[in-house]
Amino acid sequence: MTESPVKINALIVDAADPERLALFWSELLGRPVVGRMGPYVWLRREDGLGLGFQQTAAPESGKNRMHFDITSPDPAAERHRVESLGGRRLEQYADGGFLVMADPEGNEFCIIPEGSFELDDEGRAHYLD
């Protein structure tokens, strides 16, 4: 495979309240808010990747087609921190064995353990057992 000159520059999350959402993710990831321009609120760029929140009037329309996976040495403890910041666990995904959470606007993300973990033949995780 040849190297492509195209790189992902930033991930942009649509938000009804980009300031509130940026503050949630800023606290969760330890990345301060560094800019505001027009409908955008930006967190500090890390490892070359920007993370921005764009104000939109369009409502969320079902399950996310893409989501973040964040790592933690203790996913269960991180769950409680996420909840204290205004996020919530999405119990409808519990059968898959992943710790699936939602931010204050319902954007889904997983908290996975640092390092490797096993998946069964159906793709279910078991790191919460």
Summarize the structure in words.
The protein has 129 residues and is of the alpha/beta class. It has two domains: 1-56, 2-Layer Sandwich (Signal recognition particle alu RNA binding heterodimer, srp9/1), CATH 3.30.720.120; 65-129, Roll (2,3-Dihydroxybiphenyl 1,2-Dioxygenase, domain 1), CATH 3.10.180. 17% of the residues lie in helices and 33% in strands. The chain is built from two helices and eight strands; from the N terminus they run E-H-E-E-E-E-H-E-E-E. The chain has helices at residues 18-29, 75-84; strands spanning 10-15, 33-37, 40-46, 49-55, 68-72, 88-89, 99-102, 108-113. The strands form two sheets. A four-stranded mixed beta sheet has the order 1-4-3-2, with helices on one face. A four-stranded mixed beta sheet has the order 5-8-7-6, covered by helices on one side. A hairpin with a 2-residue loop joins strand 2 and strand 3. The longest helix is centred in the N-terminal third of the chain and has 12 residues, at 18-29. The radius of gyration is 16 Å and the shape is globular. The N and C termini lie far apart (39 Å). The mean pLDDT is 93.
Beta fraction? 25-35%
CATH level-four homologous superfamily name of the largest domain: 2,3-Dihydroxybiphenyl 1,2-Dioxygenase, domain 1
User: How many strand units?
Assistant: 8
Helices, by number, come to 2
C-alpha Rg, in Å?
16 Å
Largest sheet: 4 strands, mixed
Architecture per CATH nomenclature, i.e. the level-2 architecture of the largest domain: Roll
**Tally of distinct domains:** 2
